[in-house]
Design goal:
α4 packs parallel to α14. Helix content is 65%, strand content 2%. A hairpin with a 2-residue loop joins β1 and β2. It is an all-alpha fold. A two-stranded antiparallel ribbon has the order 1-2. The protein has one domain. It is globular.
Protein backbone atom coordinates (compact mmCIF):
# COMPACT_ATOMS: atom_id res chain seq x y z
CA UNK A 1 0.00 0.00 0.00
CA UNK A 2 1.81 3.17 -1.17
CA UNK A 3 2.30 6.05 1.23
CA UNK A 4 4.01 9.35 0.60
CA UNK A 5 7.23 8.13 2.23
CA UNK A 6 7.51 5.47 -0.48
CA UNK A 7 7.80 8.15 -3.17
CA UNK A 8 10.62 10.48 -4.12
CA UNK A 9 10.34 13.87 -5.79
CA UNK A 10 11.73 14.22 -9.30
CA UNK A 11 12.64 17.81 -10.07
CA UNK A 12 13.24 18.86 -13.70
CA UNK A 13 16.71 20.33 -14.30
CA UNK A 14 15.57 23.83 -15.25
CA UNK A 15 18.21 26.49 -15.82
CA UNK A 16 17.00 29.96 -14.89
CA UNK A 17 19.66 31.48 -17.14
CA UNK A 18 17.65 30.39 -20.20
CA UNK A 19 14.80 32.70 -19.15
CA UNK A 20 17.23 35.43 -18.10
CA UNK A 21 18.64 35.44 -21.63
CA UNK A 22 15.19 35.67 -23.22
CA UNK A 23 14.13 38.35 -20.74
CA UNK A 24 17.11 40.49 -21.72
CA UNK A 25 15.80 40.62 -25.30
CA UNK A 26 12.11 41.06 -24.40
CA UNK A 27 10.11 44.14 -23.47
CA UNK A 28 7.12 45.11 -21.38
CA UNK A 29 4.96 42.52 -19.68
CA UNK A 30 6.53 39.66 -21.66
CA UNK A 31 9.86 40.56 -20.05
CA UNK A 32 8.23 40.51 -16.61
CA UNK A 33 6.71 37.08 -17.23
CA UNK A 34 10.11 35.72 -18.29
CA UNK A 35 11.74 37.17 -15.17
CA UNK A 36 9.18 35.35 -13.04
CA UNK A 37 9.82 32.09 -14.92
CA UNK A 38 13.50 32.48 -14.12
CA UNK A 39 12.58 33.01 -10.47
CA UNK A 40 10.40 29.90 -10.54
CA UNK A 41 13.22 27.81 -12.04
CA UNK A 42 15.59 29.12 -9.37
CA UNK A 43 13.21 28.00 -6.61
CA UNK A 44 13.74 24.37 -7.60
CA UNK A 45 17.39 24.70 -6.59
CA UNK A 46 16.21 25.07 -2.99
CA UNK A 47 14.99 21.47 -2.98
CA UNK A 48 17.82 19.54 -1.34
CA UNK A 49 15.86 16.62 0.09
CA UNK A 50 13.82 14.58 -2.38
CA UNK A 51 11.80 12.45 0.04
CA UNK A 52 8.11 13.00 -0.64
CA UNK A 53 5.62 14.19 1.95
CA UNK A 54 2.08 15.61 1.65
CA UNK A 55 3.30 19.14 2.38
CA UNK A 56 6.09 18.94 -0.19
CA UNK A 57 3.69 17.55 -2.80
CA UNK A 58 1.39 20.53 -2.12
CA UNK A 59 4.30 22.92 -2.66
CA UNK A 60 5.31 21.22 -5.92
CA UNK A 61 1.71 21.27 -7.15
CA UNK A 62 1.42 25.01 -6.51
CA UNK A 63 4.78 25.59 -8.19
CA UNK A 64 3.67 23.67 -11.28
CA UNK A 65 0.45 25.66 -11.54
CA UNK A 66 2.32 28.98 -11.37
CA UNK A 67 4.99 27.89 -13.85
CA UNK A 68 2.37 26.60 -16.31
CA UNK A 69 0.39 29.85 -15.98
CA UNK A 70 3.47 31.90 -16.79
CA UNK A 71 4.34 29.68 -19.73
CA UNK A 72 0.79 29.65 -21.10
CA UNK A 73 0.34 33.34 -20.44
CA UNK A 74 3.43 34.28 -22.43
CA UNK A 75 2.37 32.11 -25.39
CA UNK A 76 -1.14 33.63 -25.31
CA UNK A 77 0.35 37.12 -25.10
CA UNK A 78 2.49 36.54 -28.19
CA UNK A 79 -0.57 35.17 -30.02
CA UNK A 80 -2.72 38.10 -28.79
CA UNK A 81 -5.35 35.78 -27.36
CA UNK A 82 -7.19 37.71 -24.67
CA UNK A 83 -9.51 34.69 -24.44
CA UNK A 84 -6.76 32.38 -23.20
CA UNK A 85 -5.15 35.07 -21.07
CA UNK A 86 -8.39 35.70 -19.16
CA UNK A 87 -8.95 31.97 -18.61
CA UNK A 88 -5.40 31.54 -17.31
CA UNK A 89 -5.85 34.64 -15.15
CA UNK A 90 -9.00 33.13 -13.61
CA UNK A 91 -7.26 29.82 -12.88
CA UNK A 92 -4.17 31.32 -11.28
CA UNK A 93 -6.23 33.88 -9.35
CA UNK A 94 -7.92 30.95 -7.63
CA UNK A 95 -4.42 29.64 -6.93
CA UNK A 96 -3.71 32.83 -4.97
CA UNK A 97 -6.82 32.19 -2.87
CA UNK A 98 -5.47 28.73 -2.06
CA UNK A 99 -2.15 30.32 -1.13
CA UNK A 100 -3.85 32.89 1.10
CA UNK A 101 -5.69 30.09 2.91
CA UNK A 102 -2.46 28.16 3.49
CA UNK A 103 -0.63 31.25 4.70
CA UNK A 104 -3.41 32.53 6.97
CA UNK A 105 -2.14 31.09 10.29
CA UNK A 106 1.29 32.69 9.84
CA UNK A 107 0.49 35.70 7.63
CA UNK A 108 2.36 38.22 9.88
CA UNK A 109 5.58 36.27 9.33
CA UNK A 110 5.47 36.88 5.58
CA UNK A 111 5.17 40.63 6.10
CA UNK A 112 8.46 40.66 8.01
CA UNK A 113 10.28 38.27 5.68
CA UNK A 114 12.35 38.75 2.56
CA UNK A 115 14.39 36.26 0.49
CA UNK A 116 17.54 38.20 1.35
CA UNK A 117 17.27 37.45 5.08
CA UNK A 118 19.48 34.61 6.27
CA UNK A 119 17.09 33.28 8.89
CA UNK A 120 13.35 33.14 9.39
CA UNK A 121 12.20 33.70 12.95
CA UNK A 122 9.17 31.49 13.45
CA UNK A 123 7.64 29.66 16.35
CA UNK A 124 7.25 25.90 16.21
CA UNK A 125 3.47 26.27 16.25
CA UNK A 126 3.61 28.57 13.19
CA UNK A 127 5.55 25.93 11.31
CA UNK A 128 3.12 23.20 12.37
CA UNK A 129 0.10 25.23 11.29
CA UNK A 130 1.57 25.93 7.84
CA UNK A 131 2.49 22.30 7.31
CA UNK A 132 -1.01 21.22 8.35
CA UNK A 133 -2.54 23.63 5.83
CA UNK A 134 -0.26 22.28 3.10
CA UNK A 135 -1.28 18.74 4.01
CA UNK A 136 -4.93 19.79 3.88
CA UNK A 137 -4.34 21.17 0.38
CA UNK A 138 -2.86 17.88 -0.81
CA UNK A 139 -5.75 15.95 0.73
CA UNK A 140 -8.29 18.27 -0.92
CA UNK A 141 -6.63 17.91 -4.34
CA UNK A 142 -6.40 14.12 -4.02
CA UNK A 143 -10.02 14.01 -2.90
CA UNK A 144 -11.08 15.73 -6.12
CA UNK A 145 -8.81 13.40 -8.13
CA UNK A 146 -10.56 10.49 -6.45
CA UNK A 147 -14.00 11.80 -7.42
CA UNK A 148 -12.78 12.21 -11.00
CA UNK A 149 -11.45 8.67 -11.32
CA UNK A 150 -14.50 7.20 -9.63
CA UNK A 151 -16.65 8.87 -12.26
CA UNK A 152 -14.36 7.76 -15.10
CA UNK A 153 -14.35 4.11 -14.09
CA UNK A 154 -18.05 3.92 -13.25
CA UNK A 155 -20.02 1.48 -15.36
CA UNK A 156 -22.19 4.31 -16.71
CA UNK A 157 -19.18 6.11 -18.15
CA UNK A 158 -17.48 2.97 -19.46
CA UNK A 159 -20.70 1.63 -20.99
CA UNK A 160 -21.21 4.94 -22.79
CA UNK A 161 -17.65 5.17 -24.11
CA UNK A 162 -17.27 1.50 -25.08
CA UNK A 163 -20.78 0.82 -26.34
CA UNK A 164 -20.21 -1.34 -29.48
CA UNK A 165 -23.41 -0.34 -31.29
CA UNK A 166 -22.27 3.06 -32.65
CA UNK A 167 -18.96 1.55 -33.75
CA UNK A 168 -20.67 -1.34 -35.52
CA UNK A 169 -23.08 1.03 -37.26
CA UNK A 170 -20.15 3.13 -38.45
CA UNK A 171 -18.37 0.02 -39.68
CA UNK A 172 -21.12 -0.52 -42.24
CA UNK A 173 -20.23 2.81 -43.87
CA UNK A 174 -16.79 2.81 -45.53
CA UNK A 175 -16.22 6.54 -45.08
CA UNK A 176 -17.21 6.45 -41.42
CA UNK A 177 -15.17 3.28 -40.92
CA UNK A 178 -12.03 5.04 -42.19
CA UNK A 179 -12.59 7.89 -39.74
CA UNK A 180 -13.24 5.43 -36.91
CA UNK A 181 -10.04 3.54 -37.63
CA UNK A 182 -8.03 6.78 -37.47
CA UNK A 183 -9.63 7.87 -34.20
CA UNK A 184 -9.35 4.53 -32.41
CA UNK A 185 -6.16 3.34 -34.06
CA UNK A 186 -7.89 0.12 -35.14
CA UNK A 187 -7.73 -1.86 -38.32
CA UNK A 188 -10.74 -3.29 -40.17
CA UNK A 189 -10.79 -6.53 -38.25
CA UNK A 190 -10.70 -4.80 -34.88
CA UNK A 191 -14.08 -3.07 -35.12
CA UNK A 192 -16.11 -5.74 -33.43
CA UNK A 193 -17.67 -6.40 -30.06
CA UNK A 194 -14.80 -8.54 -28.87
CA UNK A 195 -12.11 -5.91 -29.49
CA UNK A 196 -14.22 -3.18 -27.93
CA UNK A 197 -14.89 -5.36 -24.89
CA UNK A 198 -11.15 -5.92 -24.48
CA UNK A 199 -10.56 -2.18 -24.78
CA UNK A 200 -13.15 -1.48 -22.09
CA UNK A 201 -11.57 -4.04 -19.77
CA UNK A 202 -8.10 -2.64 -20.36
CA UNK A 203 -9.03 0.98 -19.65
CA UNK A 204 -11.08 -0.04 -16.59
CA UNK A 205 -8.08 -1.84 -15.13
CA UNK A 206 -5.88 1.21 -15.77
CA UNK A 207 -8.39 3.56 -14.10
CA UNK A 208 -8.78 1.24 -11.12
CA UNK A 209 -5.01 1.20 -10.65
CA UNK A 210 -4.90 5.00 -10.73
CA UNK A 211 -7.79 5.21 -8.27
CA UNK A 212 -6.08 2.74 -5.94
CA UNK A 213 -2.91 4.86 -5.78
CA UNK A 214 -4.93 7.98 -4.95
CA UNK A 215 -7.04 6.21 -2.33
CA UNK A 216 -3.92 4.78 -0.69
CA UNK A 217 -2.32 8.23 -0.55
CA UNK A 218 -5.50 9.65 0.98
CA UNK A 219 -5.25 6.97 3.65
CA UNK A 220 -1.79 8.15 4.68
CA UNK A 221 -1.91 8.94 8.44
CA UNK A 222 -0.37 12.36 7.78
CA UNK A 223 -3.51 13.54 5.97
CA UNK A 224 -6.07 11.14 7.47
CA UNK A 225 -7.81 13.86 9.50
CA UNK A 226 -8.42 15.92 6.35
CA UNK A 227 -9.60 12.89 4.42
CA UNK A 228 -12.15 12.22 7.19
CA UNK A 229 -13.33 15.83 7.13
CA UNK A 230 -13.77 15.68 3.36
CA UNK A 231 -15.63 12.39 3.72
CA UNK A 232 -18.11 14.04 6.09
CA UNK A 233 -18.86 16.76 3.54
CA UNK A 234 -19.47 14.37 0.64
CA UNK A 235 -23.25 14.78 0.72
CA UNK A 236 -23.10 18.54 0.19
CA UNK A 237 -21.17 18.51 -3.08
CA UNK A 238 -17.83 19.91 -4.13
CA UNK A 239 -16.10 21.76 -1.32
CA UNK A 240 -13.88 24.82 -1.96
CA UNK A 241 -10.48 24.47 -0.30
CA UNK A 242 -10.98 27.42 2.05
CA UNK A 243 -14.25 25.87 3.32
CA UNK A 244 -12.15 23.23 5.10
CA UNK A 245 -11.31 25.93 7.64
CA UNK A 246 -14.55 27.95 7.58
CA UNK A 247 -17.48 25.70 6.70
CA UNK A 248 -19.84 28.64 6.19
CA UNK A 249 -17.41 30.07 3.63
CA UNK A 250 -18.62 28.00 0.68
CA UNK A 251 -18.27 30.43 -2.23
CA UNK A 252 -15.52 32.56 -3.71
CA UNK A 253 -17.66 35.67 -3.31
CA UNK A 254 -18.15 35.11 0.43
CA UNK A 255 -14.48 34.28 0.80
CA UNK A 256 -13.39 37.49 -0.92
CA UNK A 257 -15.81 39.52 1.19
CA UNK A 258 -14.29 38.03 4.32
CA UNK A 259 -10.84 39.11 3.10
CA UNK A 260 -12.05 42.64 2.21
CA UNK A 261 -11.35 41.80 -1.43
CA UNK A 262 -14.91 42.01 -2.75
CA UNK A 263 -13.66 44.27 -5.55
CA UNK A 264 -11.60 41.38 -7.00
CA UNK A 265 -14.64 39.19 -7.66
CA UNK A 266 -15.26 40.54 -11.22
CA UNK A 267 -11.81 39.20 -12.25
CA UNK A 268 -12.80 35.75 -11.06
CA UNK A 269 -16.25 36.08 -12.60
CA UNK A 270 -14.90 37.17 -16.00
CA UNK A 271 -12.69 34.09 -16.37
CA UNK A 272 -15.45 31.81 -15.10
CA UNK A 273 -17.82 33.11 -17.77
CA UNK A 274 -15.28 32.25 -20.47
CA UNK A 275 -14.65 28.78 -19.01
CA UNK A 276 -18.37 28.03 -18.83
CA UNK A 277 -19.18 29.68 -22.16
CA UNK A 278 -21.71 31.99 -20.52
CA UNK A 279 -20.70 35.21 -22.26
CA UNK A 280 -21.36 36.97 -25.54
CA UNK A 281 -19.64 40.25 -24.78
CA UNK A 282 -16.20 38.65 -24.22
CA UNK A 283 -16.37 36.74 -27.51
CA UNK A 284 -18.02 39.22 -29.87
CA UNK A 285 -17.56 42.91 -30.62
CA UNK A 286 -20.92 44.64 -30.12
CA UNK A 287 -20.84 48.27 -31.21
CA UNK A 288 -23.38 50.55 -32.86
CA UNK A 289 -25.11 48.31 -35.43
CA UNK A 290 -22.32 45.72 -35.86
CA UNK A 291 -21.57 42.40 -34.20
CA UNK A 292 -18.35 40.57 -35.09
CA UNK A 293 -16.18 37.83 -33.56
CA UNK A 294 -13.10 38.77 -31.56
CA UNK A 295 -10.33 37.02 -33.47
CA UNK A 296 -7.34 39.02 -32.26
CA UNK A 297 -7.62 41.33 -29.26
CA UNK A 298 -5.88 44.66 -28.92
CA UNK A 299 -2.33 44.69 -27.66
CA UNK A 300 -3.38 46.78 -24.67
CA UNK A 301 -6.15 44.39 -23.62
CA UNK A 302 -3.76 41.44 -23.80
CA UNK A 303 -1.12 43.28 -21.79
CA UNK A 304 -3.64 44.03 -19.04
CA UNK A 305 -4.72 40.38 -18.87
CA UNK A 306 -1.08 39.23 -18.84
CA UNK A 307 -0.37 41.73 -16.05
CA UNK A 308 -3.07 40.05 -13.96
CA UNK A 309 -1.38 36.67 -14.49
CA UNK A 310 1.96 38.22 -13.56
CA UNK A 311 0.62 39.62 -10.28
CA UNK A 312 -0.97 36.35 -9.22
CA UNK A 313 2.11 34.29 -10.08
CA UNK A 314 4.40 36.80 -8.39
CA UNK A 315 2.44 36.41 -5.15
CA UNK A 316 2.43 32.61 -5.39
CA UNK A 317 6.20 32.48 -6.03
CA UNK A 318 6.86 34.76 -3.03
CA UNK A 319 4.71 32.45 -0.92
CA UNK A 320 6.50 29.35 -2.24
CA UNK A 321 9.89 30.91 -1.51
CA UNK A 322 8.66 31.62 2.03
CA UNK A 323 7.28 28.12 2.53
CA UNK A 324 10.50 26.54 1.30
CA UNK A 325 12.12 27.61 4.55
CA UNK A 326 9.75 25.32 6.46
CA UNK A 327 9.86 22.36 4.05
CA UNK A 328 13.55 22.47 3.14
CA UNK A 329 15.13 24.43 6.01
CA UNK A 330 18.66 23.87 4.74
CA UNK A 331 17.87 25.24 1.27
CA UNK A 332 20.53 27.17 -0.61
CA UNK A 333 19.80 30.87 -1.03
Amino acid sequence: MPRFKQFVLRVPPLDEKAWDKEAAAAKGIEKQLLILQSKAARLLQGINDFNASPERVAWLSMWTKAFAALDGGRIALIGRSEYLLNIISRIIFEGTLHGETILEPAAPLLKNWSPQKKTLLAKAEDSDLLIQRLRAYTAWCLWNDQLFYKELQSYRTLDGVWNPEPALQMASDKNKLTALEEILGLDNAAVNKWELKKGRSRIKKHLQEKLKIIEDLLADPLIAEWQKKLQRTQEIGTLPFFALFAESDRSVLKHLKGMDLRFAYPIYMQGSMLIHGSTIDQLLHIEENKISPIVASTERACELAAFSIHNSCDYILILLDFLQNFLWPMKHN
